Amino acid sequence: MADIARIIKVIEPEVKALGFDLVRVRYFKGGEIGPLSDEEEHTLQIMAERPATGQLVIEDCAALSHRISDRFDALEEAGEVLIRDAYRLEVSSPGIDRPLTRPQDFVNWAGHEARVQLTNPVEGNRKSLQGDLVGIEGETVTLDDKKSGRVSFPRADIHSAKLVLTDRLIAATRPLDTSGADEILEEQED
């Protein structure tokens, strides 16, 4: 298994150096190494965003992927192997129905619908909540759950949290950066 805390410590300066903010780092099993292999491939998923837009374009993802790969290679040459398994590096923007991972996410997206999975139950043994995000105070998140009403819980108890795609979210989201899209379409037509 990979040491996620160490991986984040290595990745975050690379993300910052390109002017991005790190949103999430996940390491999980998924896919196969090859069609004739019984081994499962692992994925190292990096989500980052430009602070001004909340997104990354394809060129940003490629630049960050190369930078992380180069840093991992340099560490490996120096004798530190961060991930021993075969893995795929996946770099992406968090998307419109983004995960909520940082305290600022619970502030920035207050008033929008979120789906939250908890490690410890609240309100009558419930671990799954969905409703409008009220916000965060200290390390306590508050949500207006559709079934239980207003519920508060420690951020540390969140297994996963993400925004739900709604018309309100679409209206509030910054327009996607489509720069370079014309060039991609032109190349595909040739």
Task: Please report the number of helical segments.
Answer: 5
**Element-by-element helix/strand order:** HEEHEHEEEEEHH
Main sheet?
5 strands, antiparallel
Oligomeric state of shown chains: single chain
Question: Measured on Cα atoms, how large is the radius of gyration?
Answer: 19 Å
* Overall residue-averaged pLDDT value: 89
Q: Uncertain regions: pLDDT < 50 for 5+ in a row? A: none
Topology:
Layout: H1 4-17, E1 21-32, E2 40-49, H2 58-77, E3 87-92, H3 103-108, E4 113-122, E5 126-137, E6 140-145, E7 149-154, E8 158-163, H4 167-172, H5 181-189
Parallel strand pairs: 2-3
Antiparallel strand pairs: 1-2, 4-5, 4-8, 5-6, 6-7
Features:
190 residues, alpha+beta, five-stranded antiparallel sheet, 5 helices, globular
Describe this structure in words.
With 190 residues, the protein is of the alpha+beta class. It contains 5 helices and 8 strands, in the order H-E-E-H-E-H-E-E-E-E-E-H-H. The chain has helices at 4-17, 58-77, 103-108, 167-172, 181-189; strands spanning 21-32, 40-49, 87-92, 113-122, 126-137, 140-145, 149-154, 158-163. The strands form 2 sheets. It has a 5-stranded antiparallel sheet with strand order 7-6-5-4-8. Helix 1 (4-17) packs across helix 2 (58-77). The radius of gyration is 19 Å and the shape is globular. The chain starts with a helix and ends with a helix. The model has no long low-confidence stretch (mean pLDDT 89).
